[in-house]
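User: Lactate utilization protein B, Terrabacter terrigena:
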Amino acid sequence: MTTFLGMPQGRVPGPAADTSVGQLTGDRPFPEAAREALGNTRLRRNLAHATSTIRAKRAAVVGEVPDWEALREAGSAIKADTMARLPELLEQLEANVTARGGTVHWARDAAEANRIVLDLVTATGQSEVVKVKSMATQEIGLNEALEGAGVMAHETDLAELIVQLGHDRPSHILVPAIHRGRSEIREIFTREMPGVDPDLTDEPAVLAAAARAHLREVFLRARVAVSGANFGVAETGTLTVVESEGNGRMCLTLPETLITVMGIEKVVPTWRDLEVFLQLLPRSSTGERMNPYTSTWAGVTPGDGPQDFHLVLLDNGRTRALADDLGRTALHCIRCSACLNVCPVYERTGGHAYGSVYPGPIGAVLTPFLTGVTGGTDPNDSLPYASSLCGACYDVCPVKINIPDLLVQLRAEHTEARAAKHRLPTPEAAAMKAAAWVMADPKRFARAGRAATIGRHGIRQGKPVLPFPPPLSGWTSSRDVPSPPAETFRDWWTRTRGDRS
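Assistant: Predicted structure for Lactate utilization protein B:
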């Protein structure tokens, strides 16, 4: 079992329990879910419009920064240093949060995190909480856990509110309701929002005003708030939330009790390090030079803000990823969603096809690293294949996570795990083994090249080869393969230059 060395006994984060990972696994493989999503023309239209808009905004503000690549290098280096000494930085964060009047809790998995939050809310005697947008609380399924115990969680981010009122699921890290058009949002508001004008129009400003009026009453009566954290500064015990609407600021200042759930990888060593990420994150996520609202707090300040602060540090598979030399780079992610907005696969399928709350390229690597690759029928085993490996995600990642490399590694791990479970090789494994045998010997490889030219007889030059019989038919049916040339490269080389190596 992987644990952090030197952590206080009884509070050591460990690998997430297989049955307690929260909302990280869907109920069907990606290809099946994606096939259904591809048939939804409205979804594809909404996604294409939204992602192209965000891409253009990001490109414009990134182009203004002369040292953007240096900032990316700095962000990557800080994250690598943080992961290398994560245990000591978490202990430092805990000590500084405690010294400033806060209380720190350690949660091994989603079930334990939910239980901690529910106990804290129950202790206040309240039956409702207001929430800041948080991927960590989505990951553990906190809203559902609270609802099961009779506690109502009010999402206050506009997009999260749309998803909640629509009895829907988030489909994007930054814009959870990206799959909804404004006419759909109007229908949701008029159907689900108490006291809303039935003649509400679908103008964005009108919809935002309706949401603001609805939330104002909730803000004023709430006594407990739950948030995530974009960063936690170990040096000072400071937590940071960046947002664009001001709802987070309301949640972080008005209630009497504040509970923050933060993934253990979100810690940064110093304030100087935070400076780098506050330049990288807004440009990469919302296409803004800086976030309209950047809130920081440390512990409790008498007479100012919440007077009871709790920080829940969440593992839920993160030490599993940390133990993998390459996989730990997936923990560098700062949840900007830039990779989703450039991914051709995500743009056509949307986020729901991934099953996990983390969709897109980063979800295709982060989720399997958090839950593990089984080699069986687990839906997450299909996620590493939800990519064309075009590399666009790597080009835009603000901390330079090499997502294509991680996807290839996970595909290899899946193949090995699958082979270990089956005595007979799969058709793919058998084909690869045969190819390896051919390529291992120069003479066999040369004969195979000449044999391939036989396939061109009876096929008009320039036309695709005819479909192969099973099991190769699955490959040729989805690809146009040019007919083999009349002469192999080896034969051409020998004819034109002699038999020289």
